[in-house]
Each structure stands twice: as C-alpha cells, then as structure tokens.
Amino acid sequence: MALAHCLQWSSPATSSRMPIPLEQMSWTAAAVICSRASSTPTAMSHLVLILDTMLKYGITTALDMGTFPYSTLAACKMSGKTDVRGTGAAGTVDGTALSMAPGFSPESFIDSPEAARKFVDARVAEGADYIKLFLDPLGPDLESLIAAVEAAHQKGKLVISHATSQPLWTTAEEAGVDIPCHTPLDKPIDAAFIDQYRDTLSHVVPTLIMMQSIVNNTGAPAQAYTAAAEGSVTNLHKAGVTILAGSDANTAPFVPANPPFGDSLHDELELLVRAGLSPADALRGATSLAASSFGFHDRGLIKMGYRADLVLLGADPTTNIQNSRSIKKVWAAGVQSNLS
C-alpha cells in the first residue's frame, strides 16, 4: 500500500514532540479486496469496512493485486478513504487455484501469445493501473508470458508476477516481469540467481507475512520460511535490490492464508527488519520507494504538490519498527480520519 506519513514522536528527555528527519512514506501491500462485484449492499459494506480498517492502520493508498471484476475497485473511490489502485483479474491458465475462484472469467486465461495480448488489452480497457500475471507450474508458458509483458509495456503498464518458487521466479525474470511478488518457499534467491538477472531484478515485494502464514497453516517445514523466504530477502537486500513492503492481505476463501487488512502491513515491516533491513529501509519500502517503484509520483513524500497523506505517530519507528503501530492521527488527501 502506499501512504504518506508525517512522523513525530514524544521525546522522553524533553516531553516535547520532535519531527523524524525521514522521507515521507507509502505502505505497499498486495491485497485482494473483494472477489465479488460491488453492486450489492453487502459487497459495498464489506468494501467500506476494509477501507476504514486500512486507514485506521495508516494505509492511505492500497495497491490491489487481484480483485475482479475491476469495477469492484471503482466502487472504492471515496473521498477521505484509502485510495485503491489495482490490476483487475490476474492472467493465468485453466486449472490453477486462481482459475477456480468463484466468478473468475476464462477471459483471463492466457494459454497462447494471442490470448495474452487480448488479456492485457482487456485489463487496460477497464482501467487497470498495472498488469498481474499468476505464475504456476501449470502455466502460462514463457512465450505467452513474454507476449503479455511486451503488450503491457507497449501500453505503458508495469507487470507484477505471482511466483512462489525459484523456478517460477526464473520464468518471471526470463519473461521480463517488472516486479516479482512473493518469495520462494522451496529454495532461496541466492547470489548466483541475483547475478544472473542483475539487469532486470531491481524491485521485489516479498510479502513475508503471507509466506510465513502459508508455512504455519500448511505445516510445511520451518526452513521453507526461514531459509527460503526470509533468506531470499536477506540476499536481495544485501545485493542492493529494492525491497518493497507488501502483505498480500485478503479475505479470499481460495488462498492458503489470509493476512488481515491493515495490521499485517505492520507485521510485514517487522519481518523485513528481522530479515536484515534497517527500520528506515523497511519504512521507505512502504512509502517513498513503494510509490516511485509503482510509478505513482504524486505521493509517498511530504512535498509541495503531493497528496496530503499524513500519519502522526506517537513514537519513533526508526529506532523500533514496532512503533509504526503507534498511530495517533491519519489524513487521507487532506481529510482527517476518524480512528475510533
């Protein structure tokens, strides 16, 4: 999610409030907001509740990674609420877990280069802010993925991948994906992998809280998280790859874990610090770097002409990342939120 914060904390020595000399911020999380159309009162109330929850946790821009139909996101455009940007349905092939989601349209199956180009055209036509590709051992094949990436780039859209194993990461890099989402659970992204794809591997959204939750929920060996997922982030960060904060928060019944909206973003920051990032690095990955990496150049910093997205904290998160939770006030596009 992308948000901007005016961060301050109470100084024990002076009992005064002192500004943190840190860039303004933006949380980034991949979030399935709702997998239903937004035309019913039930669906609308569900969306409003999610938006209010995210704002309560200081999230003023949410980067959605798979809500379908895209018209659902249009219903989220509400003054004073979290600003939601998204991809619409992700491209996949028949037989994957995503393809079996209730209401998922076969129009998003990219089982050939021609189908991939049509998929991208359809997402762009409905207003998607970027393109998401769901990589699975079943597919899509490399040729179709390359066609999708090329079509998206021709339309000026970034391409985000869902890839949870090292072979799928390899496929994503070979296809030219801009930002891989998730980290592997089989083996870590190591120095050799990073060196091989150094020209293209520049930004990653690891979603460590999602990967940890999957391991916990499925009974997978602990090293699937500590060695593979967390280890990948440690290696990527040491190599200078930009690490962005994302939680993959969702309420979907067809995924293996459901990190909660809002709170899980702060969990993610803590896990990134545990993986080797400094608190300031983790915060930038949730703010200024998140905004710039996704091409949103009107937010993520406190700067003249930028959105007035501000979060007031009661303690310094650069000394203890858990202080990111000490939220006192939130403004979204200049509108102060009611946090009660």
TrEMBL record:
Entry GO MF terms: hydrolase activity, acting on carbon-nitrogen (but not peptide) bonds
Coiled coil regions, renumbered to chain: none
Superkingdom, natural source: Eukaryota
Name of one Pfam family that matches: Amidohydro_1
Domain Amidohydrolase-related: 47-334
PANTHER family hit by this protein: ALPHA-D-RIBOSE 1-METHYLPHOSPHONATE 5-TRIPHOSPHATE DIPHOSPHATASE
Name of the protein this chain belongs to: Amidohydrolase-related domain-containing protein
